[in-house]
UniProtKB/TrEMBL annotation, chains A, B:
Domain HTH tetR-type: 22-81
Pfam families: TetR_N (PF00440)
Region named Disordered: 1-21
Known DNA-binding region: 44-63
Keywords in alphabetical order: DNA-binding
Basic and acidic residues: compositionally biased ranges: 10-21
GO terms assigned for molecular function: DNA-binding transcription factor activity; transcription cis-regulatory region binding
Organism of this sequence: Prauserella shujinwangii
Gene3D superfamilies xref list: Tetracycline Repressor, domain 2
Protein name stated in the entry: TetR family transcriptional regulator
InterPro entries named among the record's database cross-references: Homeodomain-like_sf, HTH-type_TetR-like_transc_reg, HTH_TetR, Tet_transcr_reg_TetR-rel_C_sf
Length: 232, 232
DNA sequence: TCCCGGTAACAGGAACATACTGTACCCGCT
DNA sequence: AGCGGGTACAGTATGTTCCTGTTACCGGGA
């Protein structure tokens, strides 16, 4: 009947609100992060809405349900952690340096956002049957997978093990760090990061050698544009 | 006044029911496992009670709340997995053989009990702020910790890294296997188990070398009673 | 010895209270 | 017209209370 072109807004009165939904969603997620920080991991949607300065039912204007909000929070956390890790992983340099810097950033972030981490562990996105931490870990692992694949291709090696390695590395770091958070023992954060970096390198080294690639962890990686030199 | 010795029941009418509570708890947990297998991971307490042939409210006679039941389920799963892993870990033999057998049992168990695994991932025991999978993983990791500590002591090495290593190993295996379960790609279960075994050994080897211990993964471990021989 | 009322502890369930989630609808503003 | 706000309400899951059996043990009396 009426023309409803997707390419151009029908009415200026509609264009006025373009992106409004996304803005409001971000506001709610921001409020949720503040509420988690202040009320702890067992925060209710009521408290989140209060933190946003709105009534609880307003939430359903912008989120399909509570799981949708939690998905938004998980996405935001993924952004935050990715932003922490990106400098370490994209800066290039030696493998060991990248690993050590990334793990240090990761352990620091977790230590500083314990409530947020606990919130994610105890809320499940029943829609997909996964919990929020799994979603965040999956997102990180997929980034790592891409990184590994890029570097494996530089050496002409197969990329089929990149994904299992990436998920293994993420699980290794997360599990050990989570335990350390709840039960630090006599282990300092930097010592833990050193240990994890060593173990992660051993894991990567094993996967690389299985592909016939030998790397010195303390020599810089080749860069896509430059000629590469495999070192034994 | 009246004799009420703790050593002997005052009345046969009371003694009749000794252990009844534990029996009923086990029955409920059994019913829950069946209900999860048949109704999927989103099973309700109502359905569990129905599977047990009882009204829902009966549950609260034996469990403090729903989290208590889930704790019971998590404990049972821990028993089941521990029973799967124990033969591999206690049989002795070479490190590589133990690792490979344990990981094979673990991947097989997860592949066969996908619904149960998903149930655990999506139900949180809010009492402690942890999810059920974390509890199971923690229990397994503690068993591994003890195993590592025993063997480290045989070599006169420090045991302070046993716990971080154990949790790291558990996280590594669980994370990679969980991803493989949801997204197997072209990787067979046995190939995955081989990869994980190699990586776990590299991790253990790194931790051992940091303590000055070098082991050949394909030579049998020393046994407590026998003289030990470190092999370079 | 056997029967019999009494009793302790469990079995089962209905009715109720509470909390969280999500929907419907109403009004106001620009 | 379209968004902003909120109250009232429905649905569901979670616990609690209370009432009615049921079973096996106990002690006493014929």
């Amino acid at each position: 009947m009426t023309s409803s072109p997707a390419t151009r807004p029908t009415d200026g009165r509609a264009a006025r609100w373009a992106g409004q939904r996304e803005r409001r969603r971000r506001e709610f997620v921001d409020a949720a992060l503040r509420a988690i920080a202040s009320h702890g991991p067992e925060v209710s949607t009521e408290q989140i809405a209060e933190e946003a300065g709105l009534g609880r039912t307003r939430l359903y204007k912008y989120f399909a349900d509570a799981a949708d909000l939690q998905g938004g929070i998980a996405d935001r956390v993924t952004e935050l952690i990715t932003a922490e890790l990106a400098p370490a992983l994209n800066a290039g340099g030696t493998p060991m340096r990248m690993i050590r810097t990334a793990i240090d950033a990761h352990t620091r972030w977790l230590a500083e956002h314990g409530n947020l981490y606990r919130y994610l562990t105890m809320h499940s996105l029943s829609a997909h049957g996964r919990d929020a931490v799994t979603d965040v870990k999956t997102a990180i692992a997929r980034n790592l997978t891409v990184l590994f694949e890029r570097n494996l291709e530089l050496f002409g090696a197969s990329t089929r093990l990149a994904e299992p390695v990436a998920f293994g590395v993420v699980g290794l770091v997360e599990s050990s760090t989570a335990r350390w958070l709840e039960n630090p023992g006599d282990l300092g954060r930097h010592e833990l990061a050193d240990l994890l970096a060593t173990w992660v390198w051993r894991l990567l080294d094993a996967a690389l050698r299985a592909q016939g690639v030998e790397l010195d962890p303390d020599l810089p990686l080749p860069v896509p544009g430059e000629p590469l030199a495999t070192r034994g």
